[in-house]
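Translate sequence into structure tokens.
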Amino acid sequence: QYDPSLRPLTIATVTKTDVDFYSQNPEKIVREWQKSLQQKISEVEYLYSSEVIRHRLVEAIAILLGVIAISVILVLLYWWLGRRLVKLQMQYDAGIEALKSATAKMQTEAQNEVSADNLEPEVTATQETSDPNLFSDRASIEKHLSTYKSWRWLLVWLVILTWYLGIYAITTRLPILMRWSKAVASHPLQLLAIWFLVTLLLEISKTFIQRSTNAWKHNPYLSFGESQRKSLRLTTIATALKGFMTFVSFSIGIVLTLALFNISAGSILAGGAVIGLAISFGTQSLVKDVVNGCLILLEDRFAVGDVIIINGMDGFVEEFNLRLTQLRNPEGQLITIPNSAIAEVRNLTRLWSRVDFTIEVAYENDPDKVLEILESVAQEMYHSPQWQDRIPDSPEILGIDSLSHTGMLIRVWIKTAPLQQWLVGREYRLRVRR
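Result follows.
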């Protein structure tokens, strides 16, 4: 009601422009404005009344407690999945280490044979490296690891969404924060949507890459040796593809974020191109390493687990990525070679290997008798159940390879499974000697 003791305050004035805009008489415009202003004032009086503020403050505290409770549950689930993930990762690493330790025994034989024609150390190869179940178990563990990682990613976004909805609900309940409720519902929501879609695209691409490589690794039409080799090779390819998809996804997210805040991405990209051009001159060797690493992968020159000779340096391929190759030589030294420096590669274990056995005998020996003994020993090993998996084809007795003043040089070829030539050769030499 009107109080004559109060000084009148002019809030708004109806001008001729207002009359022309609304096409109504001034009195009607005044009544409509008065009604609207009165309604707003009543709403403000209601919202800022002590009872309403107290009630809404209780609601805001309840929302905050609910957000905290949900977050705690989600964090506990995240922690539980993390523990499961650690256990599975330990099992996976244990399988890898078992494979490496079994292969490392043959590695010593390989390196000693490559570096010198001395007697190899007495190492017995385990069946672990030829067990396909080891790779099927790895595939199952990899699948579970991928599933747990996806669930943890989803839990992180659920926590973010819970806090966002909680903050938005609190801003709509407390009168003092209502002025920011529209701001909370616009740009932050769009920003969250952008990065959710970006990370979702990244997760889908990583899962697709992992499942595609797993399907190719465990192709039933491939022999185990070839499947094992593809497993080692595709692991590097999958890692490179995942890194590339991460770069592409985050680049898209950054560009969309700049566009959301009306920042010109063109100038930033142009400046980045100039900086990238300047950096490229200083990183030419790195680019060469990566390009040559990609070519090695595509051409399948070698993979982790092979015994190779690079530029005169021999060793077991312990680590390989797009930038460098690491070999473990017979003395246990780790040799790191940039991929750009790899000019010539001699792979001693690609798909299959061979025992190149030679023996020099005196002229007084009967050549036919010598060849008969070598043939019988080779066939005995070939038909032995213990050696059938290691010797896929029948041995070849090539005959007398050369004659010299010291005697006759006779050569035998025995085709073996990869990394088995040293074990088979040692056994064959022992039997021939007996």
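Note: The radius of gyration is 38 Å.
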